[in-house]
Amino acid sequence: MLTPNEHPIDFRCSCAITSSLDILGDRWILVIIKQMLIENVETFKDFLERPEAIATNVLTKRLKWLEEIGLITKTRRPDNNKTNYYHLTEEGLDLTPVIVDLALWSHKNLRALNPTIGDYEELEDMKENKEDYCKKLIRKYRDKLSRE
């Protein structure tokens, strides 16, 4: 993670929750992290093809921000120097429980507001043992990276 001298951030106060929201509170940041972690999104084109429809200018800014603060890395594709790959760092992977908690909260509390929220097969695994599910998700992500 970057030190304050490398990338000054205008934190509103000393509260840990507020400080984390100063970093993650934008509506797209956790969507991008979720896409990378769960949906195997790796390239700019992949992000643009997702149903969330992030505008290209917004996506460019958010990917740069995530890279600057150390939650993702950007590397060139070995066989195509024009394509960048984006991957979560260990600090980015540390957000896995946050993503899982948001999914569980949403399924429990937002159906009345958004009846289109779908059920997915992993939901029961999340509910039964959230900690094991997070470990499995992180392991799967790391395994994918080691094969690239």
Task: Supply the key terms.
10% strand, mainly alpha, two-stranded antiparallel sheet, 148 residues, Arc Repressor Mutant, subunit A
Account of the 3D structure:
This protein is mainly α. The chain has 8 helices and 2 strands. The protein has helices at residues 16-24, 29-39, 44-48, 56-68, 90-93, 96-109, 122-128, 130-147; strands spanning 72-77, 80-88. It has a two-stranded antiparallel ribbon with strand order 1-2. Strand 1 (72-77) and strand 2 form a beta hairpin. The mean pLDDT is 89.
Structural category is mainly alpha
Order of helices and strands: HHHHEEHHHH
Tell me the CATH topology of the largest domain: Arc Repressor Mutant, subunit A
Question: So how many helices?
Answer: 8
> How is the main sheet built?
2 strands, antiparallel
For the record, what CATH class of the largest domain applies?
Mainly Alpha
